[in-house]
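Work Package 3 (structural annotation) set out to generate three-dimensional models for the target panel prioritized at the project kickoff. During this period the team completed the workflow that converts sequence records into discrete structure tokens, so that structures can be stored uniformly alongside our sequence database. As a representative example, we reproduce one entry of 393 residues exactly as it appears in the project archive.
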Amino acid sequence: MFAQITSIISMNIRSIPQRFWMSLATVVAVAVVVAVLLAFLAMANGFRTTLQGSGSDELAILLRTGSQAEINSVLMREQINVVSESPGIARDEQGPLISPELYLIVDGKKKDSQIKANLPFRGIDERGLELRPNMRIVQGRMFEPGKNEIVVGEAIQREFSGFEVGNTIQLGRAQWQVVGVFSAGGSIFDSELWADVRTVQNQFERGNTVQIVRAKLTTPGDVTAIEETIKSDQRLNLDVKTEKAFYQEQSQGVSDLIFYLGWPLAIAMALGALAGALNTMYNSVAQRSGEIATLRAIGFPGLPVFFGTLFESLVLALLGGLLGAVAAYLFFDGLTTSTLGSSFTQVVFRFDMNADVLLNGVILALVIGFIGGFFPALRAARLPVLLAFAAAA
């Protein structure tokens, strides 16, 4: 039986050039479907990787109770002073390792389209810089406290216009000078503007309020002691979680949206590719009806004929899947784009075409090939010998 299946598979593969253009159309249709799916999956994966790579179990995030994003939170100075004395927060000779940070939305223009977009503007102090050890200045210098100076993430400078070092830009009602560009290791912070928190509070008339507090934990991943402090004091209507958990939650909504947009579109396109595959395989069976009849007449059962025809369909679909995967990788892997994050600000990220993404594309191609070949293969296996000879004649 195995030898018979192998013989028919070999015969079918060798006869593909006889149906070259129809087979090529099927391969290209599958390739397009796979490439579109992989583009969406790489986008979702890149966004998720950027945000989840921003978080650490060594830091805690404190926001107002019920806030789903930094922009929705407001913390008062009194709350910060109280919670900073909580057990579970690391300290050094200068006091608790916490960073109260102001988070605002300002306007920027995309370089490619000149369309306005919301950019995150973060006010931080020296502690905020200490709690981001992966941050480094790659051009210019750090801002000076008390001055209208900003540093910009390298992703912002790459995607948005006007943020070159030395430029003066209007943010809010004040003029700010760009004095440096920083890298934060490909994290979400590369999509932000930073300035001195007290200067930002004054220029935007925010008093002593901030949106978020970052705190270094004495025990990585353990926020229990801080939770107990919050529960014991009614003034502290705060939520606390690790920075890693916070950014995992932030990434989920947008990456899921991209993911669930990609699959339905790919499935809808796959129906068209499936129709092409069915047409190709039915045509293949019709053209080889004489061969099939001869094989059946000399004793080949229907099962080898079924597997031989199905294998031909899978080969064509696999070729299409591999072609689509290669095309998607060449065109999309590493491509930089931006989209709105949970705080309604732009997050710059790169398409990430990893092995799992590519595998999804190949699996979809094989599913198309299997369904597209199953029914023609079944017809070939059940084709009566006399009818097959008549069709061939």
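The first helix runs from residue 2 to 14.
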